[in-house]
Structure prediction request, 396 residues.
Amino acid sequence: MKILVLNCRIYSIEYEVFEMPKETELCRGILDSIGFDAAILTHITGDKTEKIVQPVLDHQKGLELIMTTISNPKYGCIKSKDEISAIGHRVVHGGWTFTSSVVVDENVKKEIYKDFELAPMHNPYNLKGIETAEILFPGKKNVAVFDTAFHQTMPEVAFRYALPSRLYHEYKIRRYGFHGTFHQYLSERTAQLLKKAKATLISFYLGAGSSVCAISDGKSIDTSMGFTPLEGLVMTSRPGDMDVGIINYLLRSGWTLSELENCLNKESGTYGISGISSEMKEVVEKSIKGDGNAKLAVDIFVYRARKYLGAYYFVLGGEIDAVSFTGRIGKNSPLIREKILTGLEQFGIKIDLKRNEKTIGVEGEISATDSKVKIFVLTRNEKLLIARETMELVKK
Prediction:
């Protein structure tokens, strides 16, 4: 069974084709700059990379180009689109309607549409991907895998804000959590490495957007992101946790809503502190060379991560199997991991500095041999999780 996995965003489409249940990747790629004259498709089959540059004005044209590419005799991975058995879609927001992945029907599409206001930068394009796939693959099942679904096991004490109940019931204001597919994959992969059916762990997804999740026996019981992806950890351009009174103060000072949204989403975080870049790698490099603002940005990023690590350690009762890292920063920055984990031996968490230094961009265990808690660096592979969920649902 060949499963096509799609992640449609505002200006891009990520895709991957899997042979299931072997879980073999046949090809993958990303189409960037949709809506512009020079969209770039980077397509990878095995060790071969193909780049295609041409105008792509909308998502339907983008998916048509992707299908032409993956079925190309020279560098594709299938002979025709008829080989695709089903399509799995990453959908960012499922509100409180969806607690698991679902086969898409008209009612599912209506619910995804209802959550446009909760995720205006994501859900419209996720739905566009589904609707386009229905046109390109008539008769084939589409499956929606929601970022928020994994966190629907959070207890009410974790997901409710201390706000008037009417805001919860009338406006659906609660903590939803995001990056659920990443954390679910980390949970399953960690359990696999530990040779356990389910694991209790603290999982870190550290990238442009960052989040941490407390997972008990394979279930999310708390996570750092909340009603929106702004809450929680410091990120490369978002502030994470902050006093909401700051918003009131700036509004009274004459700021517009548009200025606030731009500041909170694009000008804050480590970029806002360092003034250098929204790429954490550049900030880390500058901090090592002695740049004071860069060092402060790294230190604040790490401090917030350590606070959440400590909080979730106690939320989980002080008994955890592992701490796992993924994401561009989590996987590629030994310095960040070292700073987060150093000095935690009394809690059974002991990093092996040599292992950590050597583990860059690959999977590996970085815990010391006498560490009670295992520490893993894992490859982000949420697309495989989406392929698994899709296969299981279409088999029913």
User: Anything to note?
Assistant: The domain at 2-146 is CATH 3.30.420.40 (Nucleotidyltransferase; domain 5). The chain has a mean pLDDT of 95. The first strand starts at residue 2 and ends at 8.
